[in-house]
Amino acid sequence: MKVPMVFVCKASKMQKLLAYTLLSVLCLPTLASENFLDVRDDLHFTLEARQANKDGSLPIYKNPKASIDARVKDLLPRMTVEEKVAQLIQGDMNGWMSLNDPLDNTKAFNETGLKEMMRLKGGSIWAGYLVPWEKFVFGVEVGQRYLMENTTLGIPALIQSEGLHGFTNNGTIFPSPIGLAASFDVDLVSQVASAISDEAEGLGINHIFAPVLDLSRELRWGRVEENFGEDPYLTGEIGHAFVTGLQSGKRRNVSSTAIARMAATCKHFAAFGSPQGGLNLAQVSGGERELRTTFLKPFDRACLESLTIMTAYSSYDGVPAIANDHILIDILRKEWGYKYWVVSDAGSVDLLITLHGTCSTRECAAKTTLEKGLSGEMGGGTYTYLTLPDQIKAGTVSKQALDQTVGYMLRTKFAMGLFENPYPYKDWNSTLRTAAAKELLHTTDRESIVLLENRNNILPLKKSIGSIAVIGPHADRVSFGDYVFFNATLNGVTPLGGFKQLLADTSVKVNYAEGSKLWSNDQSGFPDAVSAAQSSDAAIVLVGTWSLDQTLLWTPGTNATTGEHVDVADLGLVGAQLDLVKAVKAAGKPTIVVFVSGKPVAEPWIQANTDAVIQQFYPGELGGLALAEIIFGDVNPSGKLPVSFPHDVGTTPVFYNYLKGSRPLDPGAVLDNGNLKFGHQYVLSTPVPLWSFGHGLSYTTFQYSGLTLSPSTVGRNNDFTVTVTVRNTGAVSGKEVVQVYLTDILASVVTPNQELVGFQKVEIPAGGSKTVSIKVKSEQLAVWSLSNKWVVEPGQFLIKVGTSDQTFANATLTVN
Ligand SMILES: *[C@@H]1O[C@H](CO)[C@@H](O)[C@H](O)[C@H]1NC(C)=O
Ligand SMILES: *[C@@H]1O[C@H](CO)[C@@H](O)[C@H](O)[C@H]1NC(C)=O
Ligand SMILES: *[C@@H]1O[C@H](CO)[C@@H](O)[C@H](O)[C@H]1NC(C)=O
Ligand SMILES: *[C@@H]1O[C@H](CO)[C@@H](O)[C@H](O)[C@H]1NC(C)=O
Ligand SMILES: *[C@@H]1O[C@H](CO)[C@@H](O)[C@H](O)[C@H]1NC(C)=O
Ligand SMILES: *[C@@H]1O[C@H](CO)[C@@H](O)[C@H](O)[C@H]1NC(C)=O
Ligand SMILES: *[C@@H]1O[C@H](CO)[C@@H](O)[C@H](O)[C@H]1NC(C)=O
Ligand SMILES: *[C@@H]1O[C@H](CO)[C@@H](O)[C@H](O)[C@H]1NC(C)=O
């Protein structure tokens, strides 16, 4: 047979080239044939049967024992342009299944729809639907079997869903990412991510869109709850734990070269979290130094092994993230050597036309994203990548970019062994919502609660107390934050439910009053709340922000104050909530305020005037119980703030690791008696946080001693170890997060006043002590120099152990 096609390179060279490069990259066809089957027929396979070799031998790409590189190289030239483009466009399981009714369990599929979907968009399949698990498994099985058995090449699909803090199709919901970060426990986060994989993997999902590594440095932005806080180092460490846990292990019955059972998705690449004005999708300002030292650090740490990365919607310094070849090609591909799949976020290719104004046609949007991003196209837009086959044929789009991008996609699939077994497991039910996952959830919910204030050790309450009032719009509500599916909250325990469960066998009376709605100024519930407080021995008031599940959050006419596309102009409590707290406090009983929220709540009155303050970032399913356990001392709080709390939105940004010189201080205040105290930074407020990054109290006390650096003098390429002894000097066992901060005393560029460089969570029994050693790598000392390179500069570095606003011990490191 004959394909009318002319290659620009010599056929005699082909064999040699094939040995070390993607041949089609170098041998561009100069002419398009009518149906443009861009397939080489001069080697070891025929056009009609591209999945087989002429000599009957097993194609390399089908050989589980062959290296991933060799398999990619073998498969790519067998593919048509249409097949390649289909790998790049996200399809949708709704093409062959009816998935709109969460309760419908009909196991049937649309054959025409299936074939059409797989022909055009068969590389990756969005499957984030709330449907009965049996029906879901059926749909995945049908899709993968069709691809494997009924298409020429048999390329399995990525099957994709959400899992920022729990597998969304009715899986176990863990605390929101900001809550996971508050645990400061990398092992725990890794286990959580692994549990998310356990639930999704059996159902045939192999790609989860998590974790988010954006930084919470612009607190007005709605998605703060999806991040791991404000700090690049903490975000990188927690993110790395998440990626490692999610990808841990191998799928069953796959090749020995497979390295992961699930593809994680580091997102949103890059610099997405600080939109101008806190407005979702708005541009981000910054230069190369801020990019390197702040925004890219967590990705560099956590994502090189992640099998996928998702790009950001925003622009950075005037360049749309999806078309930023400096970040996506120069840095990610060339500098970091990243070799897996990168995909744009939903609908974002069209944004080059409708938002950024850098393209006027869909052809331009597709070409720009492919060539400058080497990335695929997620759904949610107009599928501009469908223009690619014609553009490739017309020679206006680089075939090399197409091949490279498809190569990354195939590598991701081979890395999971999907060509050997892309199917759901028969025993999928045995890994969903298990007792072990529930136990892990319970631990995580406990570890992510942060005790902010505890005047006169009012907490923990004793179970000998006569009665408590549980008050507030968050008292009898389950708040998971965004990225959970419809009705997920039905699986959760409310705080009121948690108190009742914990106190069931005691004589403590629980008096509940809602007091007010989250979203209303109506104070008609105040009298009931005040009388509940008056008739109790202590009052617990639960207030905060709120979000909704992925269905309701995007339904017009609903309301929320946090979550994706929900940005605020004020960080104070909404509606009657602050007045409710004041009214309850005025009842004269010990008043404990619990913020249930997805971001810092800025209410200085509450910090100054209540007896205790607890922060519960949107929890997981057992959050209500864990909160009760903390308040009654069954569990000693051990969470720390991954984000600083400002006095007021006008005092932001408030992150602790500001560059030197960025926090002049001459505070003013509006005093409680109404008097005005005038200052300059700020006139009637202060840039110092209410509670700063790393803060979190315990029911015990810890004393630090014996800080040593080994060695204390290092060369520019040497790591060093920080060792310190921590003694539990209180009466109960507790967990402490040992935090190490570094200050570069003199540098060629402006550096942070301090930055976290290490931490470790340890449990220490009452009266006991532990010696903790934390390794710091030499590259953590590096600055992004004036000549645009990472350089460790000789000089002195202050090392402190403490929190961002406390020093328990310090020492000096010398680099020469
Ligand atoms: C959602 O929950 C409500 C009860 O709160 C129930 O009536 C409804 O059937 C549930 N819907 C689904 C899809 O689970
Ligand atoms: C099946 O899919 C095809 C192609 O998308 C569509 O035209 C047709 O309406 C679908 N049939 C049903 C019964 O949904
Ligand atoms: C796949 O091929 C098998 C065997 O030829 C056939 O029975 C089946 O109907 C095909 N499935 C689809 C969805 O085309
Ligand atoms: C979700 O899981 C819970 C707990 O197993 C179950 O009671 C509920 O029926 C499930 N909901 C759906 C919509 O499948
Ligand atoms: C598939 O893997 C499972 C567990 O990993 C193993 O028990 C089973 O024997 C394997 N099946 C085949 C056909 O290799
Ligand atoms: C899954 O397992 C649980 C517990 O063993 C059982 O109650 C449930 O009916 C099973 N669900 C399905 C769909 O098999
Ligand atoms: C906010 O949403 C709730 C339902 O979640 C609704 O009852 C309430 O009326 C809404 N409030 C406003 C002000 O829209
Ligand atoms: C370092 O610790 C010493 C006490 O050992 C203290 O006097 C000094 O103020 C500390 N320095 C800093 C910068 O915290």
From TrEMBL:
Coiled coil: none annotated. Belongs to the glycosyl hydrolase 3 family. This is Fibronectin type III-like domain-containing protein. Keywords: Glycosidase, Hydrolase, Signal. Residues 736-805 form the Fibronectin type III-like domain. InterPro entries: Cellulose_Degrad_GH3, Fn3-like, GH, Glyco_hydro_3_C, Glyco_hydro_3_C_sf, Glyco_hydro_3_N, Glyco_hydro_3_N_sf, Ig-like_fold. It holds the Pfam family Glyco_hydro_3. Residues 1-32 form the signal peptide. SUPFAM superfamilies: (Trans)glycosidases, Beta-D-glucan exohydrolase, C-terminal domain.
